[in-house]
């Protein structure tokens, strides 16, 4: 479905991002991985994806809090693939604390990684997308882009901002054949969520098992974690020609969390 296309997926060395990168490669796209991790493990992952799917897979260690490094990653993708057709803004971090105790540096870091990085990546690729009259911008927000939970002031603010950013970009770029959509997952069992379970247990003074049952999945009509593969399939669809008329949407894949 995505042959002769190329994608940059941020935060793709684990979790949701890795699942999306794998699905893009499986669909025929060249892929630029990005994220932190042990160098040898990342190289093994990169080589295995490339071997398994017969596409180019490259890696950038760009720090998503650094606009200059984001621009350098885009230049590397252009040099390796010739162009950038698809971007997936997935990089994210989390910190949990009551608003009056929330550290200022954590606020700045969460906004930088979860929101500002998407702005800088979009800005870096839009000129070439406009010139070629094609582009797919896929932003990974959260159900927290549509609703709120306590102790997550920076994350909720950033994810609401992601949806606003995506909608504005969609309006500006629609006439150039560029779409911009947001996926809003419920809880997915990723390393980030594993850490949240521990943080929420501490914040609420309850066990990790009760966090999963009573905090995380309590609002989801379907009492199960969202699967990475489900999100990846949706991201691939949004990148195809068949999704050309979908733009500016915020698509909840949250087990019925935000239907209330």
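^ structure tokens above, recovered residues below v
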């Amino acid at each position: 479905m995505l042959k002769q296309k190329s994608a940059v997926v941020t935060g793709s060395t684990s979790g949701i991002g890795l699942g999306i990168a794998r699905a893009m490669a499986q669909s025929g796209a060249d892929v630029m991985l990005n994220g932190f991790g042990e160098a040898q493990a990342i190289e093994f992952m990169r080589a295995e994806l490339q071997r398994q799917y017969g596409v180019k897979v490259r890696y950038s260690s760009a720090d998503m809090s650094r606009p200059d490094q984001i621009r350098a990653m885009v230049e590397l993708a252009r040099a390796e693939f010739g162009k950038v057709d698809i971007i997936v803004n997935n990089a994210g971090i989390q910190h949990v604390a009551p608003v009056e105790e929330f550290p200022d540096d954590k606020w700045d870091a969460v906004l930088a990684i979860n929101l500002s990085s998407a702005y800088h990546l979009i800005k870096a690729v839009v000129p070439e997308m406009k010139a070629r009259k094609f582009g797919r911008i896929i932003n990974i927000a959260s159900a927290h882009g549509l609703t709120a939970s306590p102790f997550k002031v920076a994350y909720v603010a950033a994810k609401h901002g992601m949806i606003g950013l995506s909608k504005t970009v969609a309006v500006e770029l629609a006439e150039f054949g560029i779409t911009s959509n947001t996926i809003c997952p419920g809880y997915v069992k990723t390393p980030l969520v594993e850490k949240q379970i521990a943080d929420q247990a501490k914040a609420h003074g309850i066990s990790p098992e009760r966090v999963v049952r009573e905090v995380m999945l309590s609002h989801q009509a379907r009492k199960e974690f969202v699967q990475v593969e489900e999100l990846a399939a949706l991201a691939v669809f949004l990148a195809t020609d068949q999704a050309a008329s979908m733009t500016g949407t915020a698509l909840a894949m949250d087990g019925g969390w935000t239907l209330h």
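Helices lie at 15-26, 39-53, 67-81, 104-132, 153-173, 191-204, 208-216, 228-239.
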